[in-house]
Amino acid sequence: MDKNSTTYTFGFALVVCVVCSLALASISEGLRSKKELNEVLDIKKNILKAVSLKEPVDPKATPEELLKVYDAKIQELVIDSSGKVAEGRDPHSIKEGESLYPLYLYKEGSAVVAYCFPIKGKGLWSTLYGYLAIESDAITVRGISYYKHGETPGLGAEIEKDWFQDNFKGKKIWDVDLHKLMPTAVVKGKVAEKIKDPKAAQYYVDGISGATMTSKGVTEMLDRELHKYESYLKTVRKAG
To answer: Closest Cα partner for 208 from 160, 151, 156, 170?
Structure first.
């Protein structure tokens, strides 16, 4: 075949495309297991961050070391909409459409230190994914962590920064006087300037300047997700 012909040129290009496609598919398939492992590690790392371990994991810890700490400190459960534990189920077995929710217990020995669960909601540009941890009193926020989003750097993306997440530590989700769920909310501006009553201020955190929609999304997310777990948390409060 004439190497200068149009047929040869297209044929050669087709062969190159096929070979490259097969090579890329092979590489992608080969990396899939590693990618899935990294995703699992990232999620577990964020759960550990949200529950604020009494002895934090070394930032330089290997994946094996991180998994060892997770397995030793975190108990995975599944609860139903009434707050009862679904025996024999784990978070990975929940199917789409089931009224079941994953719950992670941070334990030191046999004592429960915190209750942690996933939070998910809309920001300005993306869906926000994270974890919220509540102290053993089922009233006080122990920590929060966001691990996936597509918000604007320097604005909405500040939700992943320590200064924003640290705002939540020690805040309340339950009014002990009114016996009412009061999900922690994000104000526009500073709590110290917006909420003058110290008692009321414990239910609010500082907002992110220039990221009103993301802040609103966080507030709505926490309200929705906390209501899902309220039946379980109410049982914890009664037991306490």
So the answer is: 156
Determine contact, residues 135/114, Cβ cutoff 8 Å: yes
* pLDDT value at 131 more than 70: yes
- The Cα angle at residue 190 between residues 189 and 196, in degrees rounded to 5: 120
Selection from 77, 80, 84, 146 nearest residue 115 by Cα: 77
Q: pLDDT exceeding 90 applies to what percent of the chain? A: 78
End-to-end Cα separation, the chain, in angstroms: 85
Evaluate the CA torsion angle 81, 85, 88, 92 in order and state its sign: positive
DSSP states of 172-191 as a string?
A: BSEETTTTEE---EE-SS-H
Radius of gyration of the chain (CA): 23
**Region 135-154 average pLDDT:** 94
Residue with tokens 């070394």, as numbered in its chain: 58
